[in-house]
Amino acid sequence: MEVINRFVSEAGQSFFLFGPRGTGKSTWVRRRFGAALRIDLLAPDVFREYSARPERLRELAAGNPRARVIVIDEVQKVPDLLGVVHGLIEEKRGLRFVLTGSSSRKLKRSGVDLMAGRAVIRTIHPFMAAELDNRFHFEKALRIGLLPLVWNSPDPAEVLKTYAALYVREEVQMEGLVRNVGNFSRFLEAVSFSHAAILNISNLSRECGVERKTVEGYVSILEDLLLGFRLPVFTKRARRAVSMHPKFFLFDAGVFRSLRPTGPLDRPAEIDGAALEGLVAQHLRAWIDYRRARNQLFFWRSRAGLEVDFVVYGPDGFLAIEVKNTNRIRPEDLRGLKSFKDEYPQSQAILLYRGTERLKQGGVLCLPCDEFLSGIHPHKKLMTAT
After folding, report:
1. Same domain flag for 112 and 140
2. Which residues, in sequence order, are CB contacts of 285 under 8 Å at separation 6+?
3. Are residues 233 and 311 in the same domain?
4. How many CA atoms lie within 13 A of 288 on its CB side?
5. End position of a domain, from candidates 104, 123, 142
6. Do 293 and 153 share a domain, yes or no?
7. What region does 145 belong to: left with phi over 0, alpha with psi -120 to 50, or beta?
């Protein structure tokens, strides 16, 4: 298989590498730390051994004094190992740990404070267009997403179909995160309608027939499992009233499509539009994490209903980005960006669309979405209007 270099970077000390299943954590770690000692907690026998005796890690380190790196895959499965890791880091200054995980929930619930700074955090995301380079195909990414497990599969549709079921079985049911797996499965389908939309917990509760407090817990589970995230409203120095409810996104456009029901009443253009917005969202999140420059991602919505899909704010600039699933730009498509510019004249306004031409309309730079995505690279600032 062709090697695709990832933008995630290691730390100069021990570190956690978090990312959803199928994002390529283990592949990246094997390539980067091929000579390391490795503990794979997904292997049932290994899991049993370290669950029963976490101190076995100390014996492994003592038996391999020349080892410089120890990799522990899916460390959240045995949170008690972190106490041993912490002690070994303190005792052996030359020993580093790479701790991968697809969930932070059990680490939080067990009272572990992620090593109190002894290990920093890195995150790996689905592929970015720039990582794939000339292998990136915009329409394919919009259809199946950019999860490496799916992108590299000979049958992406089949992998996507079973992806959510794998999570429900192995991360939710086996770990006892919910009492009623059937309710959670219905919630997963219902929450797909909230992808790229304002998150309304009360509506979700009614749709899946589950108490509001339980649904709040389900959303938190998705966030802890790195399967979804809430996008807050941009409120800095706001002169006018803005909405206070966050937007919600599933972490990958393909996973969104796999969960979203389709039928005679579901318009393909509506689903395509949500997938397109999600594709932009996952690129912006990856860029922010990989660049590590304290940029932040928001959206903006006035009480009057004017909206901007994304606001990127931080040391690298102040961008307002609107995403439109259309080949032609209409004057009303620019209304939210112009309103935001009136409120924040320091910002730069960009509209992304499905056309092929770069245009400048009413002070807004209009770009083909595939061109914008291909140009996002953590070593560069985002494309700005000049």
Report:
1. no
2. 125, 229, 297
3. yes
4. 18
5. 123
6. yes
7. left
DSSP 14-53: -EEEE--TTSSHHHHHHHHSTTSEEEETTSHHHHHHHHH-
Total tally of structural domains belonging to the chain: 2
115 and 134 in a single domain? The answer is no
DSSP state of 166: H
- Flag whether 10 is in a domain: no
Q: Which domain CATH number covers 104? A: 3.40.50.300
From first to last of its 386 residues, what are the pLDDT tens digits of the chain? 578 999 999 888 999 999 999 999 999 999 999 999 999 999 999 999 999 999 999 999 999 999 999 999 999 999 999 999 999 998 877 899 999 998 877 676 654 556 666 788 999 999 999 999 999 999 999 999 999 999 999 999 999 999 988 877 777 876 677 888 888 889 999 999 999 999 999 999 999 989 999 999 999 999 998 999 999 999 987 666 667 789 999 999 999 999 998 877 778 899 999 999 999 999 999 999 999 999 999 999 988 889 999 999 999 999 999 999 999 999 999 999 999 999 999 999 999 999 999 999 989 999 999 999 999 999 999 965 43
Q: Which domain holds residue 347?
A: 129-375
- Looking at the structure, tell me whether residues 140 and 254 fall in a common domain: yes
Which tokens is 383 given?
């494309």
